[in-house]
Amino acid sequence: MPRPSSREEVVAAAQDRFHRRGYHASGVKDITDAAGLPKGSFYNYFASKEDMAIETLRRYGQSRQLHRLGDQAVPPLQRVSEHFEFLRADVVNFGIGYGCMFGNFAIETSEHSEALRTFVREALGRWVGALAGALRDAQARGELPAGRDVDLLAAALVRAWQGALLHARVLGDPAPLDEFETGTLEPLLAKEKA
Amino acid sequence: MPRPSSREEVVAAAQDRFHRRGYHASGVKDITDAAGLPKGSFYNYFASKEDMAIETLRRYGQSRQLHRLGDQAVPPLQRVSEHFEFLRADVVNFGIGYGCMFGNFAIETSEHSEALRTFVREALGRWVGALAGALRDAQARGELPAGRDVDLLAAALVRAWQGALLHARVLGDPAPLDEFETGTLEPLLAKEKA
Asked: What is the ipTM of this complex?
Protein backbone atom coordinates (compact mmCIF):
# COMPACT_ATOMS: atom_id res chain seq x y z
CA MET A 1 0.00 0.00 0.00
CA PRO A 2 1.73 3.26 -1.05
CA ARG A 3 2.04 6.03 1.52
CA PRO A 4 -0.63 8.69 0.88
CA SER A 5 2.07 11.39 1.09
CA SER A 6 3.93 9.97 -1.92
CA ARG A 7 0.93 10.55 -4.15
CA GLU A 8 0.79 14.11 -2.83
CA GLU A 9 4.47 14.56 -3.63
CA VAL A 10 3.92 13.35 -7.18
CA VAL A 11 0.92 15.65 -7.70
CA ALA A 12 2.74 18.67 -6.25
CA ALA A 13 5.80 18.01 -8.44
CA ALA A 14 3.60 17.49 -11.51
CA GLN A 15 1.63 20.68 -10.92
CA ASP A 16 4.82 22.70 -10.59
CA ARG A 17 6.45 21.14 -13.67
CA PHE A 18 3.36 21.36 -15.87
CA HIS A 19 2.79 24.98 -14.92
CA ARG A 20 6.41 26.09 -15.31
CA ARG A 21 7.63 23.92 -18.21
CA GLY A 22 4.46 22.79 -19.98
CA TYR A 23 2.79 19.42 -20.47
CA HIS A 24 4.86 18.10 -23.36
CA ALA A 25 8.18 19.27 -21.92
CA SER A 26 7.57 17.49 -18.57
CA GLY A 27 8.09 13.75 -18.64
CA VAL A 28 6.84 11.30 -16.03
CA LYS A 29 10.47 10.64 -15.03
CA ASP A 30 11.14 14.39 -14.53
CA ILE A 31 8.16 14.47 -12.22
CA THR A 32 8.98 11.37 -10.17
CA ASP A 33 12.63 12.54 -9.97
CA ALA A 34 11.44 15.91 -8.66
CA ALA A 35 9.28 14.06 -6.10
CA GLY A 36 12.27 11.89 -5.12
CA LEU A 37 10.49 8.65 -6.10
CA PRO A 38 11.27 5.87 -8.59
CA LYS A 39 9.58 6.28 -11.99
CA GLY A 40 7.74 2.96 -11.61
CA SER A 41 5.95 4.25 -8.51
CA PHE A 42 4.01 6.69 -10.69
CA TYR A 43 1.66 3.99 -11.88
CA ASN A 44 0.66 3.22 -8.29
CA TYR A 45 -1.09 6.57 -8.32
CA PHE A 46 -2.17 7.35 -11.86
CA ALA A 47 -3.16 5.35 -14.91
CA SER A 48 -1.45 7.85 -17.23
CA LYS A 49 0.29 11.22 -17.48
CA GLU A 50 -3.02 12.60 -18.80
CA ASP A 51 -4.87 11.42 -15.66
CA MET A 52 -2.29 13.09 -13.49
CA ALA A 53 -2.60 16.30 -15.51
CA ILE A 54 -6.34 16.35 -14.90
CA GLU A 55 -5.71 16.08 -11.15
CA THR A 56 -3.28 19.03 -11.29
CA LEU A 57 -5.80 21.11 -13.27
CA ARG A 58 -8.54 20.28 -10.77
CA ARG A 59 -6.34 21.57 -7.95
CA TYR A 60 -5.37 24.63 -9.94
CA GLY A 61 -9.08 25.37 -10.43
CA GLN A 62 -9.72 25.12 -6.68
CA SER A 63 -6.87 27.55 -6.02
CA ARG A 64 -8.64 30.20 -8.17
CA GLN A 65 -11.10 30.74 -5.27
CA LEU A 66 -14.11 31.24 -7.52
CA HIS A 67 -16.45 30.88 -4.51
CA ARG A 68 -15.40 34.38 -3.44
CA LEU A 69 -17.20 35.75 -6.52
CA GLY A 70 -20.45 34.58 -4.90
CA ASP A 71 -19.76 36.07 -1.46
CA GLN A 72 -22.93 38.02 -0.70
CA ALA A 73 -21.21 39.88 2.16
CA VAL A 74 -19.11 41.83 -0.40
CA PRO A 75 -20.59 44.32 -2.93
CA PRO A 76 -20.63 42.55 -6.33
CA LEU A 77 -18.38 44.84 -8.37
CA GLN A 78 -15.91 44.84 -5.48
CA ARG A 79 -15.87 41.03 -5.71
CA VAL A 80 -15.03 41.32 -9.41
CA SER A 81 -12.16 43.75 -8.78
CA GLU A 82 -10.86 41.65 -5.92
CA HIS A 83 -11.00 38.53 -8.08
CA PHE A 84 -8.65 40.00 -10.66
CA GLU A 85 -6.44 41.50 -7.94
CA PHE A 86 -6.19 38.06 -6.36
CA LEU A 87 -5.28 36.48 -9.70
CA ARG A 88 -2.73 39.20 -10.39
CA ALA A 89 -1.04 38.68 -7.02
CA ASP A 90 -1.05 34.92 -7.55
CA VAL A 91 0.52 35.20 -11.01
CA VAL A 92 3.20 37.63 -9.84
CA ASN A 93 3.94 35.47 -6.81
CA PHE A 94 4.21 32.22 -8.81
CA GLY A 95 6.17 33.87 -11.61
CA ILE A 96 4.96 36.13 -14.38
CA GLY A 97 6.67 33.88 -16.91
CA TYR A 98 4.40 30.91 -16.35
CA GLY A 99 0.93 32.14 -17.25
CA CYS A 100 -2.47 30.62 -16.46
CA MET A 101 -2.45 26.84 -16.28
CA PHE A 102 -5.81 26.64 -18.07
CA GLY A 103 -4.58 28.85 -20.92
CA ASN A 104 -1.34 26.89 -21.17
CA PHE A 105 -3.12 23.55 -21.37
CA ALA A 106 -5.74 24.97 -23.76
CA ILE A 107 -2.99 25.83 -26.19
CA GLU A 108 -0.61 22.97 -25.61
CA THR A 109 -2.95 20.00 -25.31
CA SER A 110 -6.23 20.78 -27.13
CA GLU A 111 -5.06 18.97 -30.26
CA HIS A 112 -3.55 16.07 -28.33
CA SER A 113 -6.03 15.01 -25.65
CA GLU A 114 -9.80 15.14 -25.76
CA ALA A 115 -9.93 14.52 -21.99
CA LEU A 116 -7.69 17.53 -21.25
CA ARG A 117 -9.53 19.73 -23.74
CA THR A 118 -12.87 18.81 -22.13
CA PHE A 119 -11.55 19.50 -18.63
CA VAL A 120 -10.17 22.92 -19.63
CA ARG A 121 -13.37 23.81 -21.51
CA GLU A 122 -15.48 23.02 -18.45
CA ALA A 123 -13.09 24.83 -16.11
CA LEU A 124 -13.21 27.97 -18.26
CA GLY A 125 -17.01 27.64 -18.31
CA ARG A 126 -17.12 27.52 -14.50
CA TRP A 127 -14.88 30.60 -14.32
CA VAL A 128 -17.03 32.60 -16.76
CA GLY A 129 -20.15 31.40 -14.93
CA ALA A 130 -18.90 32.48 -11.50
CA LEU A 131 -17.94 35.90 -12.86
CA ALA A 132 -21.31 36.25 -14.61
CA GLY A 133 -22.99 35.49 -11.27
CA ALA A 134 -21.24 38.43 -9.61
CA LEU A 135 -22.10 40.68 -12.57
CA ARG A 136 -25.74 39.55 -12.35
CA ASP A 137 -25.75 40.53 -8.65
CA ALA A 138 -24.31 43.92 -9.67
CA GLN A 139 -27.10 44.30 -12.22
CA ALA A 140 -29.75 43.45 -9.59
CA ARG A 141 -28.34 46.28 -7.44
CA GLY A 142 -28.38 48.73 -10.33
CA GLU A 143 -24.58 48.83 -10.59
CA LEU A 144 -24.78 47.67 -14.22
CA PRO A 145 -27.49 48.58 -16.77
CA ALA A 146 -30.47 46.20 -16.76
CA GLY A 147 -30.11 45.42 -20.47
CA ARG A 148 -26.45 44.41 -20.31
CA ASP A 149 -25.64 40.80 -21.32
CA VAL A 150 -23.64 39.71 -18.26
CA ASP A 151 -22.67 36.33 -19.75
CA LEU A 152 -21.10 38.08 -22.73
CA LEU A 153 -19.41 40.57 -20.41
CA ALA A 154 -18.04 37.83 -18.13
CA ALA A 155 -16.66 35.90 -21.11
CA ALA A 156 -15.08 39.09 -22.50
CA LEU A 157 -13.35 39.76 -19.17
CA VAL A 158 -11.96 36.25 -18.73
CA ARG A 159 -10.68 36.16 -22.31
CA ALA A 160 -9.12 39.63 -22.08
CA TRP A 161 -7.45 38.59 -18.81
CA GLN A 162 -5.99 35.49 -20.43
CA GLY A 163 -4.71 37.52 -23.37
CA ALA A 164 -3.16 40.04 -20.99
CA LEU A 165 -1.45 37.21 -19.14
CA LEU A 166 -0.07 35.88 -22.41
CA HIS A 167 1.48 39.28 -23.14
CA ALA A 168 2.77 39.62 -19.55
CA ARG A 169 4.47 36.28 -20.02
CA VAL A 170 6.17 37.22 -23.27
CA LEU A 171 7.22 40.62 -21.89
CA GLY A 172 8.31 39.19 -18.54
CA ASP A 173 6.46 42.14 -17.00
CA PRO A 174 3.11 42.41 -15.18
CA ALA A 175 2.25 45.73 -16.92
CA PRO A 176 -0.37 44.06 -19.20
CA LEU A 177 -2.26 42.95 -16.08
CA ASP A 178 -2.47 46.55 -14.90
CA GLU A 179 -3.46 47.61 -18.41
CA PHE A 180 -6.23 44.99 -18.30
CA GLU A 181 -7.67 46.94 -15.37
CA THR A 182 -7.50 50.40 -16.94
CA GLY A 183 -7.96 49.42 -20.60
CA THR A 184 -10.60 46.69 -20.36
CA LEU A 185 -12.13 46.07 -16.93
CA GLU A 186 -12.90 49.68 -16.05
CA PRO A 187 -14.26 50.72 -19.50
CA LEU A 188 -16.39 47.57 -19.88
CA LEU A 189 -17.85 47.90 -16.38
CA ALA A 190 -18.48 51.63 -16.63
CA LYS A 191 -22.15 52.48 -16.42
CA GLU A 192 -23.35 53.82 -19.72
CA LYS A 193 -23.99 57.53 -19.34
CA ALA A 194 -27.59 58.65 -19.69
CA MET B 1 23.91 22.95 -53.76
CA PRO B 2 20.43 22.11 -52.44
CA ARG B 3 17.45 22.91 -54.64
CA PRO B 4 15.83 26.15 -53.44
CA SER B 5 12.43 24.45 -53.52
CA SER B 6 13.49 21.87 -50.90
CA ARG B 7 14.06 24.61 -48.33
CA GLU B 8 10.59 25.94 -49.14
CA GLU B 9 9.14 22.46 -48.65
CA VAL B 10 10.79 22.19 -45.25
CA VAL B 11 9.55 25.62 -44.16
CA ALA B 12 6.00 24.95 -45.37
CA ALA B 13 5.92 21.57 -43.58
CA ALA B 14 7.36 23.13 -40.42
CA GLN B 15 4.87 25.98 -40.42
CA ASP B 16 1.95 23.59 -40.76
CA ARG B 17 3.26 21.21 -38.08
CA PHE B 18 4.18 23.92 -35.58
CA HIS B 19 0.82 25.61 -36.02
CA ARG B 20 -1.28 22.46 -35.81
CA ARG B 21 0.69 20.32 -33.36
CA GLY B 22 2.88 22.77 -31.45
CA TYR B 23 6.63 23.32 -31.25
CA HIS B 24 7.55 20.60 -28.76
CA ALA B 25 5.30 17.98 -30.34
CA SER B 26 6.85 18.48 -33.81
CA GLY B 27 10.26 16.90 -34.27
CA VAL B 28 12.72 17.72 -37.04
CA LYS B 29 12.15 14.22 -38.44
CA ASP B 30 8.34 14.70 -38.51
CA ILE B 31 8.94 17.85 -40.51
CA THR B 32 11.43 16.44 -43.00
CA ASP B 33 9.21 13.34 -43.39
CA ALA B 34 6.25 15.59 -44.17
CA ALA B 35 8.40 17.43 -46.71
CA GLY B 36 9.49 14.11 -48.23
CA LEU B 37 13.18 14.74 -47.51
CA PRO B 38 15.82 12.88 -45.48
CA LYS B 39 16.26 14.17 -41.91
CA GLY B 40 19.92 15.03 -42.55
CA SER B 41 18.95 17.49 -45.28
CA PHE B 42 17.41 19.74 -42.65
CA TYR B 43 20.81 21.06 -41.61
CA ASN B 44 21.48 22.22 -45.15
CA TYR B 45 18.84 24.85 -44.55
CA PHE B 46 18.76 25.66 -40.83
CA ALA B 47 21.25 25.65 -37.98
CA SER B 48 18.58 24.44 -35.54
CA LYS B 49 14.89 23.72 -35.01
CA GLU B 50 14.70 27.08 -33.22
CA ASP B 51 16.07 28.90 -36.30
CA MET B 52 13.49 27.21 -38.49
CA ALA B 53 10.73 28.15 -36.03
CA ILE B 54 11.76 31.81 -36.30
CA GLU B 55 11.46 31.61 -40.08
CA THR B 56 7.94 30.14 -39.78
CA LEU B 57 6.93 32.86 -37.32
CA ARG B 58 8.30 35.55 -39.65
CA ARG B 59 6.16 34.20 -42.49
CA TYR B 60 3.14 33.91 -40.21
CA GLY B 61 3.59 37.57 -39.28
CA GLN B 62 3.67 38.58 -42.95
CA SER B 63 0.45 36.67 -43.56
CA ARG B 64 -1.35 38.84 -40.94
CA GLN B 65 -1.38 41.69 -43.50
CA LEU B 66 -0.74 44.40 -40.93
CA HIS B 67 0.02 46.91 -43.73
CA ARG B 68 -3.71 47.05 -44.44
CA LEU B 69 -4.19 48.75 -41.05
CA GLY B 70 -2.28 51.71 -42.49
CA ASP B 71 -4.22 51.93 -45.77
CA GLN B 72 -5.19 55.60 -45.95
CA ALA B 73 -7.75 54.85 -48.70
CA VAL B 74 -9.98 53.11 -46.14
CA PRO B 75 -11.66 54.90 -43.18
CA PRO B 76 -9.65 54.00 -40.06
CA LEU B 77 -12.31 52.27 -37.94
CA GLN B 78 -13.31 50.28 -41.03
CA ARG B 79 -9.67 49.12 -41.30
CA VAL B 80 -9.87 47.94 -37.69
CA SER B 81 -13.11 45.99 -38.27
CA GLU B 82 -11.76 44.52 -41.49
CA HIS B 83 -8.55 43.48 -39.75
CA PHE B 84 -10.41 41.34 -37.23
CA GLU B 85 -12.76 40.02 -39.94
CA PHE B 86 -9.70 38.99 -41.96
CA LEU B 87 -8.15 37.26 -38.94
CA ARG B 88 -11.44 35.53 -38.14
CA ALA B 89 -11.78 34.19 -41.70
CA ASP B 90 -8.15 33.05 -41.67
CA VAL B 91 -8.56 31.21 -38.36
CA VAL B 92 -11.77 29.51 -39.45
CA ASN B 93 -10.23 28.58 -42.79
CA PHE B 94 -7.05 27.15 -41.27
CA GLY B 95 -8.92 25.40 -38.47
CA ILE B 96 -10.44 26.85 -35.34
CA GLY B 97 -8.61 24.24 -33.28
CA TYR B 98 -5.15 25.62 -34.01
CA GLY B 99 -5.20 29.15 -32.64
CA CYS B 100 -2.82 32.03 -33.27
CA MET B 101 0.76 30.96 -33.92
CA PHE B 102 2.13 33.86 -31.87
CA GLY B 103 -0.08 32.96 -28.92
CA ASN B 104 0.85 29.30 -29.22
CA PHE B 105 4.57 30.01 -29.28
CA ALA B 106 4.22 32.59 -26.50
CA ILE B 107 2.81 29.93 -24.23
CA GLU B 108 4.75 26.94 -25.40
CA THR B 109 8.26 28.31 -25.85
CA SER B 110 8.68 31.42 -23.64
CA GLU B 111 10.34 29.39 -20.90
CA HIS B 112 12.46 27.37 -23.32
CA SER B 113 13.94 29.77 -25.86
CA GLU B 114 14.97 33.38 -25.39
CA ALA B 115 15.22 33.79 -29.19
CA LEU B 116 11.64 32.63 -29.74
CA ARG B 117 10.34 34.69 -26.83
CA THR B 118 12.05 37.78 -28.23
CA PHE B 119 10.67 37.19 -31.71
CA VAL B 120 7.12 36.74 -30.41
CA ARG B 121 7.40 39.78 -28.14
CA GLU B 122 8.50 41.95 -31.06
CA ALA B 123 5.83 40.51 -33.37
CA LEU B 124 3.10 41.25 -30.82
CA GLY B 125 4.56 44.75 -30.46
CA ARG B 126 4.34 45.32 -34.24
CA TRP B 127 0.73 44.10 -34.23
CA VAL B 128 -0.30 46.40 -31.36
CA GLY B 129 1.61 49.25 -33.02
CA ALA B 130 -0.12 48.81 -36.39
CA LEU B 131 -3.52 48.71 -34.71
CA ALA B 132 -2.68 51.78 -32.61
CA GLY B 133 -1.77 53.58 -35.85
CA ALA B 134 -5.24 52.98 -37.28
CA LEU B 135 -6.84 54.07 -33.99
CA ARG B 136 -4.71 57.23 -34.01
CA ASP B 137 -5.98 57.97 -37.54
CA ALA B 138 -9.53 57.47 -36.23
CA GLN B 139 -8.82 59.89 -33.41
CA ALA B 140 -7.48 62.49 -35.86
CA ARG B 141 -10.78 62.25 -37.76
CA GLY B 142 -12.83 62.63 -34.57
CA GLU B 143 -14.02 59.01 -34.65
CA LEU B 144 -12.52 58.42 -31.22
CA PRO B 145 -12.33 60.92 -28.33
CA ALA B 146 -9.17 63.06 -28.37
CA GLY B 147 -8.20 62.03 -24.83
CA ARG B 148 -8.34 58.28 -25.47
CA ASP B 149 -5.07 56.34 -25.01
CA VAL B 150 -4.93 54.52 -28.35
CA ASP B 151 -1.87 52.45 -27.41
CA LEU B 152 -3.72 51.07 -24.38
CA LEU B 153 -6.81 50.48 -26.52
CA ALA B 154 -4.83 48.67 -29.24
CA ALA B 155 -3.13 46.44 -26.67
CA ALA B 156 -6.50 45.67 -25.05
CA LEU B 157 -7.97 44.65 -28.41
CA VAL B 158 -5.09 42.39 -29.43
CA ARG B 159 -5.05 40.69 -26.02
CA ALA B 160 -8.84 40.22 -25.96
CA TRP B 161 -8.66 38.76 -29.47
CA GLN B 162 -6.00 36.28 -28.42
CA GLY B 163 -8.04 35.27 -25.36
CA ALA B 164 -11.12 34.82 -27.55
CA LEU B 165 -9.12 32.63 -29.90
CA LEU B 166 -7.95 30.52 -26.98
CA HIS B 167 -11.58 29.92 -25.97
CA ALA B 168 -12.62 29.26 -29.59
CA ARG B 169 -9.93 26.63 -29.72
CA VAL B 170 -11.01 24.85 -26.55
CA LEU B 171 -14.68 25.01 -27.57
CA GLY B 172 -13.98 24.01 -31.18
CA ASP B 173 -16.37 26.80 -32.11
CA PRO B 174 -15.78 30.30 -33.57
CA ALA B 175 -18.51 31.84 -31.34
CA PRO B 176 -15.94 33.57 -29.05
CA LEU B 177 -14.61 35.43 -32.11
CA ASP B 178 -18.09 36.82 -32.79
CA GLU B 179 -18.45 37.61 -29.10
CA PHE B 180 -15.15 39.51 -29.28
CA GLU B 181 -16.84 41.81 -31.78
CA THR B 182 -20.04 42.43 -29.80
CA GLY B 183 -18.62 42.10 -26.29
CA THR B 184 -15.26 43.88 -26.62
CA LEU B 185 -14.53 45.59 -29.94
CA GLU B 186 -17.82 47.48 -30.27
CA PRO B 187 -18.09 48.62 -26.62
CA LEU B 188 -14.42 49.67 -26.43
CA LEU B 189 -14.62 51.60 -29.71
CA ALA B 190 -17.95 53.25 -28.92
CA LYS B 191 -17.67 56.99 -28.66
CA GLU B 192 -18.28 58.07 -25.10
CA LYS B 193 -21.67 59.74 -24.92
CA ALA B 194 -21.67 63.40 -24.07
From this structure: 0.92
